[in-house]
Design brief:
The N terminus and C terminus are likely disordered. This protein is α/β, with parallel strands linked by helices and 431 residues long. It is built from 17 helices and 15 strands. The protein is globular and about 65 Å long. Strand 12 and strand 13 form a beta hairpin. The longest helix is centred in the last third of the chain and has 15 residues. Helix 2 packs parallel to helix 3.
C-alpha cells in the first residue's frame, strides 16, 4: 500500500489517535501503512493498550509518536500538541465520544473521525452538531459497513434503478456479543463472566450499557447503508420512530451457564431487551425496520433487505430478484452474479489495498476516505448530520420504549437543509 501513496508524500498530514484498544490498534495499523500520513500522537490510559500499540509502531519501522497517558484528561493535552494536528481519530468508549469530539473541534482540529456512536443522550447529538457548525469542523463517523462490498454493489444497483422506486428497507445489528460483553479480566474474548471494573477491553465499559439502558444501542451498522440507499439528509429524512423491546434473558442465562447460579453477576438485572425492533418512517414514504439482537446465540447477520417496485435483495438468503430480469419468474437468483456484475467502482479500484484491513477490507475505506478528505480540504463523505441522524436512533428508541412503545418525532439535525442537499454519497463520486 505504501507505494501507492508514495507520490503524495509532500501532502503528508498529521494525525493523532485517542484510544488504542483492539479497534484502535486496527486503525493504527492502517494509518501506519500510509506514506501520506504522519502519526504524531497517540493517547490511552491503559498500559496494556499502549504497550500493544508501541509494538505495532515499532514493527512498522515508523517514528514513534508522542505518547499521552497517565490520567483521564491526557487526551486534552494531546489535542494541544505543538505543531498541531490535521485530524484525530477517536476510538474510545461511547460515553467519551461527545466530549472528545467537541474538545477536538474547540482546539482547532478541523477533521474528527469517531467510532460508533456519537453520544448517549439526544442532547449529546445536538451538542456535537452545533459544535461542528460553530467551529467549521468535519465530524465523520467511521461506519465501516457502508463500505461492505455487497452493500456497495447494491448501492450501485440502486443508483442505476434496478430495484425501481424503493419502498421498504431492513437492517440491524444481529451479532452474538456475549463473549464480548464478558471475560475473565485477562482475555478479551471467550472466558469468564466478569464485566465492569473487573472486565477487560469492551467488557470493562460496554456491558454496563446493557445493564442500564433499553433500546437499539448500536443502530449504525444497519441504518448507515440504508440511509445511503434512500438519500437520508439529502432529499429525504426520517420523520418518526417507534421501538419495541423483548424481555431480557440472554445475558443472565449466559452468566449462569458459564459462571454458575451462585456467581455474583447472576443477580444483575439487565435492562436491555434481547431483541429490540425499531420502525422508522421517512419523508418520502419509505419504511425502515431495524433490529438490535446481541444477547442470544445466533450467527452474525445484519439482515439487510432492499425492496422496491422492480425487485428485492436480501442478504440473509444471499438472494436477489429483479422483475423481468431474473432467470425465472418468482424465483430467487443467487446474489453473487448480480453483486459481481455491479461491483462498485471503489472496490474495483482499491480491492488489492484492502488486503489485511479489518472487517473484510471495509476498515481500509473509512480511513482512506477520512485521510483523502483532509488532503483535499473537502467535507467527509459521511458528515456530522449523518453521524447524528444514525446514532440518535439509540436515545430515541429508548424514549419510545420507555413511553410504552409510543411513536416519537425524529429531529432534523440539518435544520431544513436536507431538502436542498445533493442526494449523493460524495465519496463514490470522488475517489
Amino acid at each position: 500500500m505504501n507505494q501507492i501513496f508514495a507520490a503524495q508524500q509532500e501532502q503528508k498530514i498529521k494525525l493523532g489517535i485517542i484510544g488504542l484498544g483492539a479497534r484502535g490498534q486496527g486503525h493504527l495499523d492502517l494509518v501506519l501503512r500510509r506514506d501520506d500520513v504522519e502519526l504524531v500522537a497517540i493517547c490511552d490510559v491503559e498500559p496494556r493498550a499502549l504497550a500493544n500499540a508501541k509494538e505495532i509502531i515499532s514493527k512498522s519501522g515508523k517514528k514513534m509518536p508522542q505518547v499521552f497517558t497517565g490520567d483521564t484528561e491526557a487526551w486534552r493535552k494531546m489535542l494541544e500538541i505543538k505543531g498541531g494536528l490535521d485530524g484525530v481519530l477517536i476510538v474510545t468508549p461511547w460515553e467519551l465520544h461527545k466530549p472528545m469530539i467537541i474538545g477536538a473541534l474547540q482546539s482547532g482540529i478541523k477533521y474528527v473521525g469517531t467510532e460508533v456512536i456519537l453520544g448517549i443522550s439526544l442532547q449529546d447529538h445536538w451538542d456535537v452538531v452545533k459544535a461542528a457548525e460553530q467551529y467549521g469542523g468535519h465530524v465523520m463517523m467511521l461506519e465501516n459497513v457502508c463500505y461492505r462490498r455487497d452493500v456497495m454493489a447494491v448501492l450501485n444497483m440502486v443508483r442505476q434503478g434496478l430495484f425501481g422506486e424503493l419502498i421498504h428497507l431492513q437492517g440491524g445489528y444481529q451479532h452474538d456479543l456475549r463473549e464480548v460483553k464478558f471475560n475473565d479480566g485477562i482475555n478479551t474474548y471467550g472466558h469468564g463472566v466478569e464485566f465492569g471494573e473487573k472486565g477487560y477491553s469492551e467488557a470493562h465499559w460496554r456491558t454496563n450499557h446493557s445493564v442500564n439502558r433499553n433500546g437499539d444501542l448500536y443502530p449504525t451498522h444497519g441504518v448507515g447503508p440504508i440511509a445511503q440507499y434512500i438519500n437520508i439528509n439529502r432529499g429525504n429524512r426520517f420523520v418518526s420512530l417507534c421501538s419495541f423491546s423483548s424481555k431480557s434473558r440472554g445475558l443472565h442465562n449466559h452468566i449462569v451457564k458459564e459462571g454458575g447460579p451462585n456467581h455474583p453477576n447472576a443477580a444483575v438485572q439487565f435492562k436491555l431487551g434481547d431483541v429490540v425492533t425499531t420502525s422508522l418512517h421517512c419523508a418520502n414514504g419509505e419504511t425502515v425496520l431495524l433490529q438490535h439482537d446481541t444477547n442470544l446465540p445466533r450467527p452474525y447477520s445484519l439482515g439487510f433487505r432492499v425492496q422496491g417496485t422492480e425487485g428485492i435483495w436480501m442478504d440473509v438468503n444471499q438472494s436477489i430478484y429483479i422483475q423481468d430480469k431474473s432467470a425465472k419468474s418468482d424465483v430467487w437468483d443467487p446474489a453473487k452474479k448480480w453483486l459481481d456484475q455491479y461491483d462498485h467502482p471503489l472496490w474495483q479500484k482499491w480491492s488489492k489495498e484492502t488486503a489485511g484491513a479489518g472487517h473484510g477490507g471495509m476498515d481500509f475505506f473509512v480511513i482512506h476516505a477520512f485521510v483523502e478528505s483532509i488532503k483535499n480540504g473537502t467535507a467527509t463523505p459521511m458528515d456530522v448530520y449523518d453521524a447524528a441522524t444514525w446514532s440518535a436512533i439509540s436515545p430515541l428508541s429508548e424514549s419510545s420504549i420507555e413511553l410504552g412503545h409510543q411513536t416519537v418525532d425524529f429531529p432534523d439535525f440539518t435544520s431544513g437543509q436536507w431538502m436542498y442537499r445533493k442526494p449523493v454519497f460524495a465519496l463514490h463520486d470522488t475517489y
